[in-house]
Amino acid sequence: MKNSVRYKRRSKRSRAGKRRIAVTVVLVVVALALWSALRPHARATSEHEATAVRIPPVHAPTPRPAAWTAGELADMRADLGHAFAPALSDRYSLAVIDAAGRVIYARDDDRAVTPASVQKLIVADAALRVLGPHYRFHTVFAAQRAPSSDGTLEGNLWLVGSGDPSLRSADLRAGIAALARAGLRRIDGSIAVDAHEMTGPEINPHWNPDDANEDFQAPTSAVSIDDDTAEFRVYGGAPGTPARVVVVPASHALQMSGAVMTSSSSDSVIIAADAPDVFRLGGTIPQDTEEKFWLPVHDMPVYAGDVVTAMAREAGITVTGAPVVSNAPLDTTVLWDHRSAPLRTLMSHMLYVSDNHYAEQLMRTLGVDAGGRGSDADGLAAELEFLRSAGIRAPGLRIVDGSGLADADRVPAITLARVLSDAELDDRGGTQLYQLLPEGGRDGTLTNYDFTTALGRVRAKTGHLSDADSLAGYVTTRHHGRLAFAFMINDSPGDPDAAYVRAVDRLSEF
């Protein structure tokens, strides 16, 4: 006896199978028709080859961000007010710009306050637009004539810098090694350093002198090596004996006095600069321990000449003269050329770790590009001209450096928010700046920011000085596209970073 339920199921499967056969036949017919239509246009390289015709996929257009309703704007502004309230002082500047370039939140957005490191967004955007993301720095070894057949170079070997902030002593050592492999054996002259591309004081006079011993306040120079710092390696020995201190790279331009003593457990190493390039050693280091410290060095052309001379002699190249600082003659020939990574890569590093040295080098490079002498004044003038030509308002703006390290800097939130918004809206820049910023709660200087709803949807630049806290960047909302924001609070009585996280989390939900 038939089971009616089982029969119905078999019947449905049978009918479905018939439908599949019919559909297959139709698909085959359509495919044959397409093949016939396309066949005259196909070209095989031999009679045994078949030509595959690729039909490009159809992508759905990206939906436009929804328009903000009056109710949403009111709710958003109230929510941000609550988020900021515990941290606000008498000095703050806050702005948010929507995906269409419209200011949708502004509280004293025209007031210029201390920006700290978010100021780097200005030099970053200016450099990307003016120099271009593929711009590279060149550092060269040059001479007036090629070495003779026996490997002797008559005259100086010039090291000519262009301000590359990423140049490492290992790069120069590789250049010397390349010259040695090419046959250079003797320099009847000196290592001459040409750093004329940049002029002016190495240390910005507006910076805090109390930070002179810190690696984040390094000099600026056309010949910049290892972020213009030297590495001090301290090795603890037996208790009661002086520790061994090695400076890398080796240089006679640096002087040291005193000693770090080895102890059984105490760790209080002191390496202090009593004067430029004069370091005092003190304190203790545990036995059988290695520690590393990076301290700024000064008179970079002199230091670079001494370092490269030592490298040449280590490579078996005799150098008869002492290092000198001298401009290369116009008739020199390039013997070795080191190209930096593209500017886009350098910018990513600068924004990711908030590298002050990169910002200062780039600011002076903008001054050189504008026809100046590569001074701070030239670089600052180039930044201001960039803002003016881009039509970015900057009420009350006063900047004295490129990095935001100076307490004297003053920038309004509307300027930074507009820099970010314009970079997003401008077809030439596209999302360049967005992609170079660290991701909130995940990497760079934003690693420890506890975003919740905005996690994975915010990229931004942080800023901190003793009396200034800031955050500026982008957040992608649920319905209204990507917003640009700039938040700066000076002399806060509360926790500005926590307020910024609350504000950005709330923005992301709209």
Using brief descriptors, characterize the structure shown.
single chain; 510 residues; alpha/beta; Beta-lactamase; D-tyrosyl-trna(Tyr) Deacylase, Chain: A; 5-stranded mixed beta sheet; 11 helices; 23 strands; 31% helix
Notes on the protein architecture:
- By secondary structure, the protein is of the alpha/beta class.
- It has 3 domains: 1-55, no CATH class; 70-135 and 342-508, Beta-lactamase, CATH 3.40.710.10; 137-340, 3-Layer(bba) Sandwich (D-tyrosyl-trna(Tyr) Deacylase, Chain: A), CATH 3.50.80.
- It is 31% helix and 22% strand.
- The strands form 7 sheets. Strands 2-1-23-22-21 form a 5-stranded antiparallel sheet. It has a 5-stranded mixed sheet with strand order 18-8-6-4-19. A 3-stranded parallel sheet has the order 5-7-17, covered by helices on one side.
- Helix 2 (70-84) packs antiparallel against helix 11 (496-508) and helix 3 packs across helix 7 (356-369).
- The chain is globular and about 80 Å long.
